[in-house]
C-alpha cells in the first residue's frame, strides 16, 4: 500500500539530472572501493614488512649459529679440521631448505670458495652481514667474520623458499586488491542505485508543480529505513499540498464564477434601465456602472485564465501543432487599423512555416496582450515591430519610452502596474502572458533595449539571458 506518482507526470529538470549524475550514493560506492583498496595495500605493506623482518631475523640467527659452531671447531681442531668440516657442510641442505655456502680466506687468498667466488663487500673485521649475490647470481644472506689475524670466514644461506613465500604473498594480495574493491564497488553500486532511485523519486515528487491526489508511482515507502521514512513524509506532504491546492483552486474558481454571474445579471438590468427614457444624469451613471462591471468581469476572466494556465504548466497533452507564422500574420492584419489609429507604424519580419505545439486561442491571446500593451504605452509616432524566427523565437517590441528600470524586475507579477498605466488596467496582462508561456513550455522575458520595450518569447533552453 502506498502513495504513487504517475511516471508521465514526472517533470525532471536539467538541474535534477545533473545532481543524479553526481549522486552521493555513487560517490559513496566509489569511496568504499577506494578505502577497501587502500586498506588491502596497507595490510600488504604491513604483512610484507613483518614477514621480511622475520625472514631476515631467521637467516641472521641461522648464520650466527653456524659461525659460532665453526669458530669452536677452529679453536679446538685448527685450520685443517675447519676446512674439512666446511667441505662436508657445503654439500648439505638444512631442514628449512636453506643451502649453506662457505668461503675461507687466509690473508686475502681463498682457501675454500665454492659457489661464492669473489669475496663480497663485507668486512670481516667488522663482522658485517647482509644480502649479497653469489657468482652464479643466487641471492644469499651472508656474514663475514675474522677467526684470527690472518684467517677470515664467510657463511651464507640461500633463502629461495622465503623469496617464493614473499612472491606468493604478493600474488595473493594482488588478487585481493583486484577482487575485493571490485566486489565492494559492485555491491555498493547496486545498493547506491537502489537508494538513488528512491531518492530521485522523492525529489521528482517534491519538484513537480502539477501533482494531484491521484495514485502515485511506487517510491518504496514501505521500506522501514531512513529513506522510507523520508518517502512516507514526503508523499504525505505532497498529498496534503495537492489536496489543499485542489481545494483552493476549486474555491477560487467557484467564487469567481459565483461573483461573475450576478455581475452579468446586474449588467443586464442596468442595460435595460438605460433603454428606458430618463434623466441624462441617471443615464450617465448607469453607463459608468456598466463600465465598472465590465472591468470587474474582465479582471475575473483574467484571473481564471491565469489559474487555468498555471494549473496546466508543462502539461503538453491536448496541444496541437499550429502554424505560428500564419497566426501572427492574421493577428497583424487585424491590428493594422488600430495601430494606424494610434498614430503608430507596423513593421513585421515573420519567417514562414514556423510551427508550435499549442492551444491556438491561448497563443493568440498572448500575442494580442503584448500588441495591446505596445499600442497603449508606446505613443504616437513610434513603430511596433513583430519578428518571428524558427525555434520559435518571437519578438514583439516598440521604440517608445520603454519601461521604468525600477519596475522591470517585477513586470510579470500580478497587479504590477507602472506609474503611467491606463486607469482601466488591472496589471494582469503580462502575468497572463507568462502563465500561457509556461503552459506551453516557453520562456518570456524583457530584452535590454536602449530605447523602447521588446518582449521575447523563445523555447526553453534557448539563450534567454536578460
Overall description:
- Pfam families: HATPase_c.
- The chain has helices at about 15-20, 25-90, 160-205, 225-275, 280-310, 325-340, 360-375, 430-440; strands at about 100-105, 110, 130-135, 140-145, 150-160, 320-325, 345-350, 355-360, 385-390, 395-400, 440-445, 455-460.
- The protein has about 475 residues and is of the alpha+beta class.
- Among the domains are: about 225-310, Helix Hairpins (Orthogonal Bundle), CATH 1.10.287; about 320-460, Histidine kinase-like ATPase, C-terminal domain (Heat Shock Protein 90).
- A 5-stranded antiparallel sheet has the order 2-1-5-4-3. A 5-stranded mixed sheet has the order 7-9-10-12-11, with helices on one face.
- The protein is rod-shaped.
Structural key phrases:
8 helices, EC 2.7.13.3, disordered N terminus, 15% strand, transferase, rod-shaped, Helix Hairpins, 5-stranded mixed sheet, Heat Shock Protein 90, single chain, histidine kinase, 466 residues
- CATH class category of the domain at 320-459: Alpha Beta
CATH architectural type of the domain at 320-459: 2-Layer Sandwich
Low-confidence stretches: 1-20, 209-218
End-to-end Cα distance, whole Å, is 48 Å
Overall average pLDDT: 75
Q: Helix count, per DSSP?
A: 8
Strand order of the largest sheet: 2-1-5-4-3
Helix percent reads 40-55%
Question: Biggest sheet, open or closed, and with what strands and sense?
Answer: 5 strands, antiparallel
Briefly note the structural class of the backbone: alpha+beta
Strand fraction equals 15-25%
Give me the count of strands: 12
Amino acid at each position: 500500500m502506498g502513495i504513487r506518482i504517475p511516471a508521465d507526470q514526472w517533470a525532471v529538470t536539467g538541474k535534477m539530472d545533473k545532481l543524479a549524475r553526481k549522486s552521493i550514493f555513487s560517490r559513496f560506492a566509489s569511496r568504499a572501493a577506494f578505502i577497501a583498496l587502500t586498506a588491502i595495500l596497507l595490510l600488504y605493506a604491513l604483512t610484507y614488512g613483518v614477514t621480511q623482518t622475520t625472514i631476515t631475523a631467521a637467516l641472521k640467527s641461522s648464520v650466527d649459529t653456524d659461525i659460532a659452531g665453526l669458530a669452536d671447531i677452529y679453536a679446538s681442531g685448527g685450520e685443517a679440521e675447519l676446512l674439512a668440516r666446511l667441505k662436508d657442510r657445503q654439500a648439505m641442505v638444512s631442514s628449512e631448505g636453506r643451502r649453506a655456502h662457505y668461503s675461507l680466506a687466509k690473508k686475502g687468498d681463498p682457501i675454500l670458495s665454492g659457489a661464492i667466488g669473489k669475496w663480497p663487500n663485507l668486512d670481516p673485521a667488522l663482522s658485517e652481514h647482509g644480502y649479497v649475490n653469489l657468482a652464479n647470481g643466487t641471492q644469499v644472506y651472508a656474514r663475514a667474520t675474522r677467526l684470527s689475524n690472518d684467517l677470515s670466514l664467510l657463511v651464507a644461506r640461500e633463502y629461495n623458499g622465503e623469496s617464493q613465500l614473499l612472491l606468493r604473498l604478493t600474488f595473493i594480495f594482488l588478487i585481493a586488491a583486484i577482487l575485493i574493491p571490485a566486489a565492494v564497488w559492485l555491491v555498493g553500486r547496486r545498493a547506491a542505485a537502489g537508494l538513488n532511485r528512491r531518492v530521485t523519486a522523492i525529489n521528482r515528487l517534491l519538484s513537480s508543480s502539477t501533482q494531484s491526489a491521484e495514485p502515485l508511482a511506487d517510491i518504496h515507502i514501505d521500506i522501514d529505513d531512513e529513506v522510507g521514512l523520508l518517502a512516507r513524509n514526503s508523499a504525505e506532504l505532497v498529498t496534503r499540498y495537492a489536496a489543499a491546492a485542489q481545494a483552493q483552486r476549486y474555491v477560487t474558481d467557484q467564487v469567481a464564477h459565483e461573483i461573475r454571474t450576478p455581475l452579468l445579471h446586474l449588467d443586464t438590468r442596468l442595460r435595460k434601465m438605460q433603454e428606458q427614457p430618463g434623466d441624462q444624469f441617471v443615464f450617465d451613471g448607469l453607463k459608468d456602472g456598466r463600465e465598472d462591471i465590465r472591468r470587474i468581469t474582465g479582471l475575473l476572466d483574467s484571473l481564471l485564465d491565469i489559474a487555468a494556465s498555471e494549473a496546466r504548466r508543462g502539461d503538453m497533452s491536448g496541444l496541437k501543432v499550429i502554424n505560428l507564422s500564419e497566426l501572427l500574420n492574421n493577428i497583424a492584419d487585424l491590428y493594422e487599423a488600430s495601430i494606424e489609429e494610434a498614430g503608430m507604424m507596423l513593421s513585421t519580419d515573420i519567417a514562414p512555416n514556423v510551427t508550435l505545439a499549442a492551444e491556438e486561442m491561448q497563443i493568440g491571446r498572448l500575442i494580442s496582450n503584448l500588441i495591446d500593451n505596445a499600442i497603449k504605452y508606446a505613443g504616437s509616432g513610434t513603430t511596433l515591430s513583430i519578428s518571428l524566427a524558427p525555434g520559435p523565437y518571437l519578438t514583439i517590441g516598440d521604440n517608445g519610452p520603454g519601461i521604468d528600470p525600477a519596475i522591470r524586475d517585477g513586470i510579470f507579477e500580478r497587479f504590477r502596474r507602472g506609474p503611467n498605466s491606463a486607469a482601466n488596467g488591472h496589471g494582469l496582462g503580462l502575468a497572463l502572458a507568462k502563465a500561457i508561456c509556461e503552459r506551453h513550455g516557453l520562456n518570456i522575458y524583457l530584452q535590454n533595449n536602449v530605447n523602447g520595450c521588446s518582449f521575447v518569447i523563445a523555447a526553453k533552453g534557448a539563450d534567454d539571458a536578460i
